[in-house]
Amino acid sequence: MENTENGKKLRVAIIGGGLVGSLSACYFGKRGHEVHLYEYRKDIRKDELARGRSINLALSTRGRRALAGVGLEDKLVSHHGLPMYARMLHMTDGSTRAVPYDPVNNQCIYSVGRRHLNQSLLDEAEDSYNVQTYFEHKLINIDFEDGKLYFRRPACIRNCYPSGPDYWALSTSYPGPEQTYWPDKAELIEAQADLIVGADGAFSTVRRLMSRRPLFNYSQQYIEHGYLELSIPPTEDNQFAMESEYLHIWPRGSFMLIALPNQDKSWTVTLFMSHQQFKSITKSDQLLEFFKTNFPDALKLIGEDRLVKDFFQYDSSSLLSVKCSPYNVGSRAVIIGDAAHAMVPFYGQGMNAGFEDCYLLDDLLHNHGLSLEDALEAFSKTRPINAHAICDLAMYNYVEMRDLVARSTFLWRKKLDTLLYTLAPSKWIPLYNSVTFSHMDYSKCISNRAMQDKALKRMLLAAAVGGLGIVIAVWQKTIRTYLGRKL
Ligand code: FAD
Q: Residues enclosing ligand 1, CB less than 6 A?
């Protein structure tokens, strides 16, 4: 076994059994460590009511490499992923336009079901890598010096909450203040670990506890827009209601609708707009009017009754970006996934970046002969720069998706990028391709784009100067001819 610390087998406590925590458990389990995974919610494999943040997600190259590292890429991508080769833009006049993600190599991203992915990762962790899982265990405190962890278990989940089963479903992304959610009768559980991996999401408790220590930097930003999930059912003959090999987008400037395909031939449709706009729609007829004006084609596919039911069933959810550093506490703890770098979802990279964390951390811990502390320090030194870069890119892409994507300047830039990418595929990699279809450091993707912008400006300037030279030459010739004639 190639373990860090001269082959020492570690007792690893992973906090959070979401996508990143369960993949991380597979990685540590694969290396022969003793892995205990603690999850605040009920086991989603047994809980029909569990509701995650988004029903499906776009999986791309970084996430696929990380899944391949534990032998899951084929199982999850070939058997479950639905390829999306292009954005399909739905314009206000009802026309549609496909904008391929990679017209040169025809690469695609995959729509995968969050629940299926999470269930498969948990199954794999338990069955193939002997990971011990503990559900309904909420981490409440850590003693970083001794490696002690403290959890609470609810004594009576269903009976304790007045709002019944839905409470459990709705509280997944924000565990909230202790006193609200955890009744007096709750059990207190103690555990011990050599290494604590915080994969407990955007509202991470591990991160909160780390932030009490000196020299921990942290910032968070909510955007003014939220989201709400709707759906398009399969057609009567059980087919997709729209062409399935696309990520459909209805860009409308200050808001947008997107749709990703599901295995059962339905579509998950997400409406992104400002919280204020969500709040302003309080009645069915207002909602229908809004859709008739802005998304008439989508309304036909969703159906009026379904739209009204889905729209008013839940409140819109918030979107948050989190940056922090360092990611480790000595050799004792490290944070990964949304716990370290939650981002707005517009580059489709949150999960992919979290999966990449698992891959990179495993590499540093096991392939470079580093001590545990040095490996965690190295992760903490390199990863935040790249995580901050993708958080920024995701913010930028929000404007691109809902607004710029429909503009002719965007489409011309895409064409120019494609032309240069075709002529020099190893030298001119467009930004979207480097983020989505490569393993290039996210910060390098940004600096690359800055260089490309500079190069394009120079080319345009050269073309303009060249053009001006021709104009002057023609003008001089005309003048000379004119004067010659006159003389
Ligand atoms: P989470 O999925 O939040 O999991 C954290 C887990 O920790 C949860 O199960 C939680 O119950 C548990 N937990 C929390 N606190 C405690 C505690 N105190 N004790 C024990 N357990 C605890 N990413 C993409 O790559 N592609 C996409 O297309 C994409 N689309 C998205 C669309 C939307 C609308 C949103 C909101 C996000 C999207 N993302 C996408 C981002 C992606 O969902 C996240 O990056 C990903 O879920 C992060 O996984 P995680 O395991 O780090 O965190």
A: 15-21, 38-41, 53-54, 57-58, 138-139, 172, 175, 199-201, 205, 227, 270, 337-339, 345, 348-352, 354
Give me ligand 1 centre to Cα 301, in Å: 29
> Shortest CA distance to 314 belongs to which of 51, 112, 45, 48?
51
pTM: 0.90
Query: Are residues 29 and 132 part of one domain?
Result: yes
Take atom 15 of ligand 1 and give the residue whose Cα is closest: 200
User: How far is the centre of ligand 1, averaged over its atoms, from the C-alpha of 408 (Å)?
Assistant: 35
What domain count does the chain have? Answer: 2
- The distance in angstroms from the start CA to the end CA of the chain is 95
Going from the Cα of 57 to the center of ligand 1, the distance in angstroms, rounded, reads 11
Which atom, in ligand 1's list, is nearest to the CA of 349? 25
What ipTM is given for this predicted complex? 0.99
Same structural domain, 386 and 414: no
CA dist 55 and 38 (Å) reads 23
**Would you give the distance in Å from CA 389 to the centre of its chain?**
13
Testing ligand 1's pocket by substitution, the residue of 38, 45, 57, 322 carrying the most ligand atoms inside 8 A of its CB is 57
For residues 105-136, one letter each, b for 16 or more C-beta atoms within 10 angstroms of the residue's C-beta and e for the rest, the string is: eebbbbbbbbebbbbbbbebbbeebebebbbb
* 191 DSSP β-pair partners: 149
Q: Note down the domain range covering 18.
A: 4-393
Q: Indicate whether 398 belongs to any domain.
A: no
Q: Residues 6 or more apart from 122 whose CB is under 8 A from it?
A: 17, 22, 43, 44, 45, 133
Q: How far is CA 383 from CA 17, 137, 206, 368, in A?
A: 22, 29, 18, 16
Give residue 411 CA to ligand 1 midpoint distance, Å: 32
Atom of ligand 1 nearest to the CA of 337: 52
Ligand 1 atom nearest to CA at 204: 15
Tens digits of residue pLDDT in 246-299: 999 999 999 999 999 999 999 999 999 999 999 999 999 999 999 999 999 999
Worst-scoring range by mean pLDDT, 26-30, 320-324, 407-411? Answer: 407-411
Residues 414 and 380 in one domain: no
Instruction: Choose one of 360, 393, 426: the last residue of a domain.
Output: 393
